[in-house]
Amino acid sequence: MKSIETDVLVLGAGTAGLTARRSVERAGKSALIADGGPLGTTCARVGCMPSKLLIAAARAADDAHRAALFGVRTTVEVDGSAVMERVRRERDRFVASVLEPLGPLEEAGVLLRGAGRFLEPGVVRIGDHTIVRAAAIVLATGTRPYVPPPYAALGDLVVTSDTVFDLTEIPKRLFVVGTGPIGLELGQAMSSLACEVTIVGTDGRIGPFHDPKMQAEARAVFGATLDIHPQITLESAVREGGVAKFVFVDPDGTRHTREADRVLVAAGRRAHWHELDLQHAGIPLDEGVPMVDPLTCQCGDAPVFVAGDANGFRPILHEAADDGHVAGANAARYPDVIAKARRTEMKIAFSDPQQAVVGMPWDRLDCDRHRVGEIDWRTQGRSQVDARALGRTRIYAEVDTARIVGAEMLGPAVEHLAHLLAWAIQAGVTVPQALAMPFYHPVVEEGLRTALVDLQAQLRLARPRGEPCEEFGPGG
Ligand SMILES: Cc1cc2nc3c(=O)[nH]c(=O)nc-3n(C[C@H](O)[C@H](O)[C@H](O)COP(=O)(O)OP(=O)(O)OC[C@H]3O[C@@H](n4cnc5c(N)ncnc54)[C@H](O)[C@@H]3O)c2cc1C
What is the pTM of this model? Predict the structure, then answer.
């Protein structure tokens, strides 16, 4: 067994870990990074990039079908193997660009291959070949898809986001478990690619929304085109040969049966802390899970930091990279750690129409301090021109300052409009200031103006403090 000493050991060479390593080096300290799985990052291998490649193919098919709305006739044929071949080819290019700088790191002995396990505080065994002693440690070990037991029993009919992009054909019938962003993005894309799709969930929620009005909107919009059941009770899931058979019940008691050739389980992701022997790490644990400060990424007072999806705060790419910076910099300067202000929160789901949640979550709003303005996109000029007039956006502002604080959005061009609002929120822009900005005509941004004008009117409406209100309740 080899023994090495370093200033900082980073476990996990995903987005957070690679960023953490660079931050440590920038701070003039030595860093080793170890990874126990396939290299290339979740984002490039099995996450953001291949999912968007599949969605790009789905949008091409949708656009071809939609052409008839404008009087343009086409015949559409989906070549499933060509679709999946492009997804893999382009994905492999993204992965290759991540791997390129890692070869020299491995040759230099900075990148070690093997999973890390704690032996004692500051001491980690990598695989079965190296013991590393480090003054500080960054855990950037990510998460993995979780497959609930009734579905796990279906064996190799089950795919997750880790394996679905390796399919060489689009399945004929797909049963999707999970109505969150990943289940919805992939399930809807498969549906556009000539696959018969059923999407089910158990908690009644669709997509990223907390606002009950947005949840209702999402149910109406996606329910109109997808066989989607957000709150089922599963009665049975059995396998008969190459077919999975399901019986489930909706909340109103309606019983359904479905058959599928594949089952895509997108029922959440879990950190795999039990594999790290954290009981030897000298950090505070809550039922085996590290207790982490979101602003410093530190575990208690220990020289251990948790970055990226593993810490469970904001499991999206740019936040993983931010975490990596914070954790790496703090590991290098331990014990003099600093808290870093976070960016305005922004979550986007690349469904059609797209969904986004930015800024302050619905469950932190209250009647006395906040107001809501909204637009129903069905009434918006440019969206009607493009035959994309669907969905709703609700923008929240603070009564005392008129500052925009958050929004939940379902509609056209949401990936772009969400950025405009997130930037406005982070810059502390008020509703009157936003309305003083230029809006061209005819563009979808005019829809934001409609919601802001409504919000301005709501802000002017005095509601006596303490009066009961129907607007805000517990998150949906
Ligand atoms: C289908 C899908 C679509 C997504 N789409 C988007 C999107 O559109 N936009 C967006 O912002 N985000 C998206 N995400 C989320 C985004 O991919 C993640 O937030 C991000 O990749 C997390 O990076 P990370 O560094 O925390 O983890 P990872 O990239 O998963 O890295 C963790 C690494 O740790 C290694 N490891 C695990 N255990 C050990 C150990 N004991 N020792 C050493 N190494 C270990 C693993 O092998 C892995 O390489 C998507 C995710 C999925 C699954």
Answer: 0.96
